[in-house]
Amino acid sequence: MAKRVMSYRGVQVLLAAAVLLLPACTFTEDTLWPSLSGESPADAKKQAAASPQKAPAPASGQAGGGASAPQAAGQAVIVTQNPPPLGTTDFRPAGVTPGQATGTFVGKKASDLRGELKRLQASISDHNGQLQGLRGKIVANSQRYHGTIAAVNARLQVGTTRGNPILVQQFNSAQADLDRIAADITEMNALAARIGNNSTMSSFLLESAKASFAVSGAVDEDHRQLAILEDEVSRTDVLIARLLKEVSDDVRRQTNYVATERANLNIVSAAIRTGEIFGGSLINKALASVTRSQNGTLAARPADTTGKRPLVVIRFDRAKVPFQQALYYAVSRAIERRPDAVFDLVAVAPASGGAARVALNSNKARRHAEEVLRALVDMGLPPARVAVSAKTMSNAKTNEVHVYLR
């Protein structure tokens, strides 16, 4: 009789655990697909709303608010991933070489271009300062978040009361820290857009400096100053490209990190309600099919797209191509048919014009691909679902970005 009673109670415990896990899995999907699914994103704070009200912080040695029996052997621990590394480069422009007036029209043009380059470099320095400040904020918020989650896990590991108000308070604090990291990522993404404007300006200055050589009425000193100016604009353009790439990499890494941690917080919330710890998020286990790149972030392997028909072709044949709406429609329709879809983003450059021109076009095509990737992330697509690659095509007339459904 005693054995039958114990068996019945065991079944009750398993059913209760299953009921608690079901809403957490649903919330995870809403978190990772907030915009592309066409539904309103779930609010993570609602997960903690069903828990008791916050209680004052206890004295030392009473953080758990009472403990139940120790966890059973083999029970999994919720382990949050380490925050991904941030870039460390300090982007400082080298400055502009002063020139002297020559009294010619070309000399006046060179002087004007030097003034524009000085303003551009001042803007770069300002953006560099903003980037370093955002990196510091993200590091501080990440350290505070992981410290709070570690305290919650430690209490859950040994067992505690259901809906422990102290753990609810710690959970809300961790969630607030994660929200701050997400806000910092949003600021960093806006910073990337402003840096992109600097890139446009540097390209204009470089073309203007080159065109000034062909203007008649110049003296030798004018051409000497123009040559120096062209070199400095080129170096500034390279600095901007490196700055934009590093900011984009930071945004991708941190966006993926926050999405994963939000999924983990769902499981922490369910664990607090039951007073027992669960395993890691199921959606994170589903990402096991992607590989870790050398910088530690999750990334899908690029696939061979030869002979495949692209889902979207974006031709960057003019400035500010309005591709976002068409891209959103195509990708959202694809996700409706295949919720687990993975996409290949290919930067395509024309293969004509000589090695120097091909290299220049390839660099611009990669920038366009990064712009499309940022747009997809803004729409709610996890970066782990996108693989980025590049190639040249003989029949391409301008820089293009192809989006393939794998």
The helix fraction, in percent, is 55-70%
Structural domain count: 2
Specify the biggest β-sheet. 4 strands, mixed
Query: Into which percentage range does the β-strand content fall?
Result: 5-15%
Q: What's the pLDDT, averaged over the residues?
A: 74
State the order of secondary-structure elements, H for helix, E for strand: HHHHHHEEEHEHEE
| Rg on CA atoms, Å | 27 Å
Strands of the largest sheet, in order across it? 3-6-4-5
Global structural class: alpha+beta
Distance between termini? 57 Å
> Segments where pLDDT lies below 50 for 5+ residues?
1-80, 280-298
Globular, elongated, flat, extended or rod-shaped: what is the shape?
flat
Number of strands: 6
Number of helices: 8
In short:
The protein has 406 residues and is of the alpha+beta class. The chain is built from 8 helices and 6 strands; from the N terminus they run H-H-H-H-H-H-E-E-E-H-E-H-E-E. It has helices spanning 2-32, 45-49, 105-158, 165-212, 220-274, 282-286, 324-337, 354-378, and strands spanning 291-292, 298-299, 312-315, 343-350, 386-393, 400-405.
